[in-house]
Amino acid sequence: MICISVTPESRRLARADLLNASRQGDLIELCLDHLVKSPDIADLLDAVDKPILITCRRSQDGGKWTGNEEDRLQLLRQAIVAEPDWIELDLDIASKVPRYGKTRRVVAYTSLYSPLGSTRSEIDEVFEKAQAADADVVKFTWPTPTLEAAWPLLSTVSQKRDLPVVGMGLGPCGLTFSLLGRKYGSPWIYAALEHGMEAYEGQPTVGDLDEIHRWRSISGSTRFIAVDGFDDGALAMVGVFNQAAESAGLDARWLPLAWQDTSRLKQMFEKLKIQGVVGRPGGDAQLGELADRREEALGEDGPVDLLMHKDGAWQGFGCLWRAALLALEEAIGGGDRPLDRRNVMVIGTGPLARTMIFGASRRHGLVSISGGNDRAAQQLASDTGARYVPVQNLYDTLVDVVVLADPALELGPGRGQLNPSFLRPPMLVTDVAAGREDSEALTEARSRGCPVVEPETVWWGMAESLFRSITGQELPPDIRQH
């Protein structure tokens, strides 16, 4: 079930909020602490035919209650007499509000600023106290900015216990918890009705859970593939993959997450049965640290944008360079080996540039390299067998294809910059560090009449490569139309 919180300030608005939430949620949390005047709770319960969970939280628990504690307890006792479907009670006061009628009890542990300790004894202690307070469900709320912070909560919900567990993670990995909670049988997960009504920054909306994460079809057997990040680009990729998996009938979903410390990450992935991790386009150094082996194109420090657990080891792959190379060849056209004998200039000296040199060389391009740091460019050329071209000689060099592979590239006439006058037709230009959006260099190249490989083309190529590598299937052709 999805639980939608409503936080009305007046009794009149409360009925409207309940009605709106009832159209999309399965359970509605009615937060009494936001109301200016005492409500007629029985009247509000009659407003909708969906189950209602009554809460009244103190500021220390993230609520807006400004009265004294005795008045709050009295309000909760009055609420339970109205027999809502559920009532939430803080762990420290649950024993002061006795069970009444058919109302089920959520006993809540909340820590707004730090998670409960990761030791099992601390978590077990909360369960013991909740059970003693006659709980039907135990709820945990704490900060989850990273997977490490969310881990005690994830470990708790993934284990079979006498009492069901729900959780509200405050921060990006709260979404991670919600999706895994669905897999492991949490009675409900929390969502905002719409953007602008989030209980905390980053909380997913009902629309997000349906359209991006396809949460309704997640089951105990669903296999998760992790995706690094919660930015718009990462969530766009998650949405494409989940739609494609559903279209292809695959019981798999892509799980956005974030981390800081890699020391226990493999063990966490293995415990959650995560068999693959999609990194950021262009690679992630932290993701690369986890690779026991890397494909040849990546060398020792190449950008790992896909990590797969195969044959008992975590193997690192690069999908961006393949997608960029394929997009280049499609733009050139003309047979099986479009890059054969063409002059390819790679601008950049980092790991991303190295993979593009590898790919273009394998496709028989005549590869040269240049970059803002002459010494680094010269060393990379020596390491890869490419031709080194000093920046000051770029304008006099014959170039058919320009591959921009430097995320920090700056245009200009200064030292370490790329002079825009270098870009001239009929050079074909691609920026593999651009992501899905135009870069300044691509905009400049297009304005000067150069044909360019559109970032959107490379992005979709990478999505197709990742989906194929993970599932062994082609991305359904109708996905691009949405």
Quickly describe the structure.
This protein is an alpha/beta fold. The chain has 15 helices and 19 strands. Helix 5 runs parallel beside helix 6 (173-183) and helix 11 (320-332) crosses helix 15.
Outline the structure in words:
There is one protein chain. This protein is of the alpha/beta class and about 475 residues long. Among the domains are: about 1-205, Aldolase class I (TIM Barrel); about 335-455, NAD(P)-binding Rossmann-like Domain (Rossmann fold, 3-Layer(aba) Sandwich). About 35% of the residues lie in helices and about 20% in strands. The strands form 3 sheets. It has an 8-stranded parallel β-sheet with strand order 7-6-5-4-3-2-1-8. It has a 6-stranded mixed β-sheet with strand order 10-9-11-13-14-12. Helix 5 (about 145-160) runs parallel beside helix 6, helix 11 (about 320-330) crosses helix 12 (about 350-360) and helix 11 (about 320-330) packs across helix 15. The protein is elongated. About 45% of the residues are buried.
Topology:
Blueprint: E1 2-6, H1 11-22, E2 27-31, H2 41-45, E3 52-55, H3 69-81, E4 86-90, E5 104-110, H4 120-132, E6 137-143, H5 147-158, E7 165-170, H6 173-183, E8 189-191, H7 206-211, E9 223-228, H8 232-247, E10 252-257, H9 265-271, E11 276-278, H10 285-289, E12 293-294, E13 306-310, E14 313-317, H11 320-332, E15 343-347, H12 351-362, E16 366-370, H13 374-384, E17 387-388, E18 401-404, E19 428-431, H14 440-447, H15 455-471
Parallel strand pairs: 1-2, 1-8, 2-3, 3-4, 4-5, 5-6, 6-7, 9-10, 9-11, 12-14, 15-16, 15-18, 16-17, 18-19
Antiparallel strand pairs: 11-13, 13-14
Helix pairs in contact: 5-6, 11-12, 11-15
